[in-house]
Design a protein that fits this description.
Layout (H helix, E strand, L loop, with lengths): L1 H9 L2 E6 L3 E6 L5 E5 L4 E5 L1 H6 L8 E3 L8 E3 L5 E10 L2 H16 L18
Antiparallel strand pairs: 1-2, 2-3, 3-4, 4-7, 5-7, 6-7
Helix pairs in contact: 1-3
C-alpha cells in the first residue's frame, strides 16, 4: 500500500480518510475524490458524476459501498440507497500512475465541464 500511496501523492492527491474498506484521496486542486479499495488487485473507484461527464472514462462496473461517503447514492439490491461509483482495476502501480495522470489532465481541461465527447488532446512532451 505504501507504493500506491506514493503514486497518489505524486499525482497531487492527499489522503483524507482510511477505513477498513477503502482509502479516500482528494486531489489538492480539482477536489476530485478517488477511493483506493483494500483488495488484492489494485482497484480504485471514481465519482459517477465525473465518469458520466467524461466519455473517455467508460466503465460499466458500478461498485456499491458505504465507504464511498462522498459519492452519490442509488438503490441497488437492497431497500435503502447506498453510495456508489465506477471501479477500475490495474495490474501494477505504474498503470495506476498513468491513469491518474491522464485523469487529471482530462478533468483540468477547459472543456471538462462543457462538451464531453471532444477528442482527447495528448499532453505535450517536456
Amino acid at each position: 500500500m505504501d507504493k500506491l500511496h506514493a503514486v497518489f501523492i505524486k499525482n497531487n492527491f492527499s489522503l483524507n480518510l482510511e477505513t477498513s474498506k477503502a482509502i479516500e484521496y482528494e486531489h489538492i486542486n480539482s477536489k476530485e475524490i478517488v477511493y483506493l479499495l483494500h483488495n488484492k488487485e489494485i482497484s480504485i473507484v471514481l465519482n459517477p458524476n465525473m465518469v458520466e461527464k467524461v466519455s473517455l472514462l467508460t466503465s460499466d462496473k458500478k461498485y456499491h459501498s458505504t465507504a464511498l461517503k462522498k459519492f452519490p447514492t442509488r438503490k441497488n439490491n437492497g431497500g435503502n440507497p447506498i453510495h456508489y461509483g465506477y471501479s477500475y482495476k490495474f495490474k501494477q502501480a505504474s498503470d495506476l500512475d498513468d491513469f491518474l495522470n491522464d485523469l487529471l489532465y482530462v478533468t483540468t481541461r477547459s472543456d471538462y465541464h462543457g462538451e464531453t465527447d471532444s477528442p482527447r488532446v495528448e499532453q505535450p512532451s517536456i
